[in-house]
Amino acid sequence: MTPRVARSQENLVAALRRHADLLDEYSTRAFRQGEESFNGEVAGKLRVLVYQSRTNKPLLLDLMKEHDVSIPIPISRPGGDIEMSINDFLDNLAFAIRVPSRGLVSVTNKQLIGMWAQQYGASHEDREVEEEFAQVLSSGIFIGGLPGAAAALKAIANTVLWLAKEFLAHLDRENVASDG
Question: For each of the chain's 180 residues, which pLDDT tens digit applies?
Fold first, then answer.
């Protein structure tokens, strides 16, 4: 096995821009009627950007950590707006349904990204998820004209896109300041 070569910060930032642009393009397509096949592509890009696991180092999260940048995410709630970190956002509840085999099944934003990527091969593993999670993905509940899990995926994609744009704007301001 060939050892991996460390990539420069410049290359990593360029890759972040590319992946964020692709996430934007895929999510624009994925959440239109008849384009559901792009949901796996959205999950794949989210996996690259923010899904942290033993084998996956998320590009956006790693770059934010490397640059020591923390950008709170504004979340609208019925009791008033709050701010949370990206890690708290990923641990937040995405979707829940009752399934016959297990009762109430709930998934976090991170779990939804992971199982969607796994189910549709976006993680390059292309394996089936557990039955109850497959039922979450194929739930008959609709939110805003989209199947419930897709509506949750759209909200996650929009939040990650916002965060990526904020972070890239921060880096651009930092570069202008250091050049001036």
Answer: 555 556 788 899 999 999 999 999 999 998 886 677 788 889 999 999 999 887 778 999 999 999 999 999 998 888 888 999 999 999 999 988 887 777 888 999 999 998 888 877 655 555 677 787 888 888 888 888 888 889 999 999 999 999 999 999 999 998 887 776
> Could you tell me the two tokens for 63?
């770059």
CA distance 69 to 167: 8
CA of residue 8 relative to chain centroid, distance: 24
Decide if 4 is inside a domain. no
The residue range of the domain holding 96 is: 9-175
The helix or strand, by DSSP H or E, that contains position 56, with its residue range, turns out to be none
Q: Residue 93: what are its φ and ψ, rounded to 5°?
A: -60, 130
This prediction's pTM? 0.88
For residue 2, being part of any structural domain is answered with: no
CA distance 24 to 44: 12
CA atoms within 13 A on the CB side of 172: 8
Number of separate domains in the chain = 1
Number of neighbouring beta carbons within 10 Å of residue 143: 15
| Cβ–Cβ under 8 Å, residues 9 and 66 | yes
